[in-house]
Amino acid sequence: MINKFHGMSGMIERMHLKILREVDRQGSLTAAAAALHLTQSALSHTIKKLELLSGTPLWTKEGRRLQLTQAGEYLLREANRLLPQLERIDETLSQYAEGDKGTLRIGMECHPCYQWLLKVVNPFLAQWPGVDVDVMQQFQFGGMAALFNHDIDILVTPDPIVKEGIAFEPVFAYEQVLLVHVDSELAKFEQIEPSQLANEVLYTYPVATERLDIFQQFLLPANCSPKKHKVIEATEMMLQMVASNRGVATLPQWLAEQYAQTLPIKTVRLGEVGIQKHIHLGSRTGSEPNRFQQAFVELALQIS
Asked: Using CA atoms, how far apart are residues 263 and 244, in angstroms rounded to an integer?
């Protein structure tokens, strides 16, 4: 007669389920014990203890043959249902630990940089099927604060701020150019001077003037300004305004040339040497980045 132990909780352990499953697979206690790297006596003791705790036998012996009881049959069904789920959990946790699974959180401080980012994200997702990418496109959010607060893992910006605890990697060089209508007066020039924008409507993204290269590196040093400054958030709408000959705008040359293939627009250099820029990837220092974060930066360098 098996005694019942009242008030016992948490009696089922994973090893109990593994033993039931392995005995069913192997057909004997000896073979099951070998498969689980246990001695037969340890296996039998483990099940006997569970039987004592639960108050019911799990199997009976008929010679060398084991016969599961109803309780044993129930526990075997649960073992076949639960163990694969637990094993998947183990595998997923191992992937997190090894950096093969997780979420890469990217913050954007640059409107047109999103087009560049897609060129990196697409192959990255193919290489890292267990990793999701979350892109924060709130362009006026505090990128540096987001990095320090661990809200993002990587900051994409053309204007890195040197600060202790953050390292920036230049991954893509480009030139910022002026977009004009092909029939405009400015289209006759290969390069222009700041004063030539005095009669133009300048379209920009809704970014503070102190962060706009067209002002900080071109107009303001020459003490010049456009006739009117208007902000537009969507790149496509900005391009339509230029294509309608209603004003001018600036974009990275590589992106502007793509649109110039289908729209009546032309690119013009800003000044004699142009405005030279880099897209940078910023990340926190002081701790080892996970494998997929390192892989993203390496892939960005290769593609660029």
From this structure: 10
Residue 237: CB atoms within 10 A of its CB come to 10
Among candidates 64, 128, 132, which has minimal Cα distance to 104? 132
Q: What is the amino acid identity at position 98?
A: E
Query: Any residues with CB less than 8 A from the CB of 74 and at least 6 apart, and which?
Result: none
Query: What does 167-181 look like in DSSP terms, one character per residue?
Result: EEEEEEEEEEEEEEE
For residue 5, give both structure tokens: 């132990």
Look up tokens 């400054």; give the residue: 229
Tell me the pairing of strands 228-231 and 59-62: unpaired
Question: What is the 8-class DSSP label of residue 281?
Answer: E
Q: Smallest Cα–Cα separation from 153: which of 105, 103, 101?
A: 105
Residues 218, 275: contact at Cβ < 8 Å? yes
Burial of 288 (0-12, 13-18, 19+ CB in 10 A): exposed
What's the token pair of residue 198? 């005095």
Nearest partner of 150 among 287, 279, 278, 280, judged by Cα:
287
Q: What pLDDT, in 10s, does the model give residues 51-87?
A: 998 899 999 887 777 889 999 999 999 999 998 888 8
Tell me: the pLDDT tens digits for 28-46? 889 999 999 999 999 999 9
13, 4 contact by CB (below 8 A) = no
